[in-house]
Amino acid sequence: MKKCLSVCLILLGFIFNSYAADKTATPPAAKVEYAYYGFEPEIVTNYISNRKKLGFVKIGVEVMVKTTDDLLLIERHDPLLRAAIIEVLGNQPEEKVKSLAGREEIRRECFERLNNLIAQEVGRSLIVNLLFTSYLYD
């Protein structure tokens, strides 16, 4: 009987200790719910080519934002943002379009341009990241 009572007291001690530890734990950080907006259909445009044949690039673009409210603002300004991406791509030389380092520079340029445009429209930057989900060129 004494052994059973001792075991019960030990178990109760563990339960109260874990309960007290839960009360003193720090609250979790605010959860950020990222959302993605994909430009549909994919963007197709020409770039500056050194050949007689006209060069073109076809890319899939998605932007990452922090909240679904930001997603709605991005969707509202889709035509403006799409035109900016087309303009950036259309001003690129063939060497830059076809190299991996150039592709990353183009991605960063698009990211900065879109963030600047959206900040002018809504008063703050919304885009956390910009991704090329597909990238084809000829």
Secondary-structure map with pairings?
Elements: H1 2-24, E1 35-38, E2 43-47, E3 55-65, H2 68-76, H3 78-90, H4 94-98, H5 100-122, E4 127-137
Antiparallel strand pairs: 1-3, 2-3, 3-4
Give a short synopsis of this structure:
The protein has 138 residues and is α+β, with helices and mostly antiparallel strands.
State the separation between the terminal residues, measured CA to CA.
85 Å
Percent of residues in helices comes to: 40-55%
Count, helices: 5
Beta-strand share of residues: 15-25%
* Average residue-wise pLDDT: 85
Low-confidence stretches: none
Coarse structural class: alpha+beta
**Main beta sheet, described?**
4 strands, antiparallel
Strands, total number: 4
Give the overall silhouette.
Answer: elongated
**How large is the radius of gyration?**
26 Å
Q: What is the H/E order?
A: HEEEHHHHE
Notes on the structure:
The protein starts with a helix and ends with a strand. Helix 3 packs antiparallel against helix 5 (100-122). The chain is elongated, with a radius of gyration of 26 Å. The longest helix has 23 residues, at 2-24. Strands 1, 2, 3 and 4 form a four-stranded antiparallel sheet that branches. The protein contains five helices and four strands; from the N terminus they run H-E-E-E-H-H-H-H-E. The chain has 138 residues and is of the alpha+beta class.
